[in-house]
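[job 4471] stage=fold_predict status=RUNNING
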Amino acid sequence: ADAEVSYRASAGEIDVGPFTFRSAPADDAPLRMLVFADAHTNADTVPLVAQMGLEAGVDLAVGVGDSVSQPEEAQFDSLLDSLRALGHRVSWWPVLGNHEARGQAYFDAVALPGGNPKEPHEAWYAARVGTVWFAALELQDITMTAGFGTDMPEVVWLREQLASDAARTATWRLFFIHQPPWCAGWGHCDAPIYHGEPTLRTFLVPLAAEHDVAAIFSGHMHGYEHGVVNGVHLVISGGAGGALDMTCDTPDDFPSPWTAAYEHHALIVDAACDALTIEARRFDGSAIDTVTIPK
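[job 4471] inference complete, writing structure tokens
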């Protein structure tokens, strides 16, 4: 645990390195994460996201969906090239968004341990790293299923994972999903206005509260938003590269208070022993918002 490893990489006549990475921290060790969404293969902003992670000394990065605009091999090549400086040193954990669209290029580009046993095997997964247990969920079936069937393979799997020792003994439990339960902003304010996924409000947020999940991270909306529902912090970080959205009028039952800023950014998440700190940072390093969740 937490050992520095030096390595080189070779392919034919190409030889690069040496580089270093650190193995995963011990289960009781603090963890620092880079979290971002909706990069949309933006070659101008994704290197800035990677640089932010390097400068912050993160242990891993999570891409919460729509890292590409189309599920094409060339776009994944471009994305990974933009993340290269960070990817030399830490792992990147992706989440399927609507733009990945379960395309084969996504599954060819990533290898995810702890994936679900059903097809497609790496559409959702869970992992324990340091003090954090997290589940990365794929919402295509869930958000399209009326009544949110609790016998769906992903839901059954998620309940089993939440009951595991890895989840129960973690200091922090987190969900990563692409579409949000609620959002105030969208790309236009013409009716009907998108304000998130009702099925997630009626099932996933209560499930998170039941199992003391501290936060649900999502994207889809291009900007930063934060609110608290049933004691669960809902954090949208969709500002990694897509065209920015705008705030729209919200319905009467919209959560309050609610913070929103439509700027390009990424999150630095510190999972310490006594608190989880989430900082939304612009690419110049300045802070948009800081949220601290006590243990």
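[job 4471] summary: Helices lie at 46-56, 73-82, 84-87, 104-109, 140-144, 153-162, 165-168, 198-210.
[job 4471] exit 0
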